[in-house]
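for the writeup, i need someone to sanity check this before i put it in the appendix. the sequnce is what the collaborator sent (i think, or maybe the updated version? ugh). structure was predicted straight from it, no edits. if anything looks off just tell me and ill rerun, i have time this weekend
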Amino acid sequence: MQAKLDKLQMEKREVELELMKAKSALHKLAVQNSITQNKSIDIPEITVERMDEGCDAKPESFTEGVQTDDDGSESYEMSPSTRSRLGSRSPLAQRERKQLEERCAELQTQLNAASEMNAELEEVKRAMMEELAELKRCYKENMENSQAIDNSELNQVLVYSFVIFVSKERSKMRSLE
């Protein structure tokens, strides 16, 4: 009797193992198919119950068969995180990733070129600021020098103009007399 029970349990384990392998293969096919079609496929849930774990079942309580397929089983849907992890292996995702990497490299090249140009422009700006400071210094010196010259000349012109003005006014006054 024990030999028959052991034989049945061994056969049951073999069937369970085959069911698990079939479920795994079905799941792999469904995942590959959903990735290529980029949509989720309903996979029927296969329930494998192990009767001998944590159970004190006696051979007389065993029935002829156990129904493992449930008509009301829930459909299998991949979560977005599972889809993204699995999707990263698909050729489409690899192509998109390659395109993104190329775009990123292109943008990095543009950024480096812009940084170099910015450094050059900063150098030009620094040189121009130095030149501007020198021009301001020269202008200020020239203004001080020209003011000294211009003030003395201006005073002479003003005195001369005043003398002319006074002489004209005197002439007018004489003509009125």
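The chain has two domains: 2-87, 90-177. Helices lie at 2-37, 80-87, 91-176.
thx in advance!!
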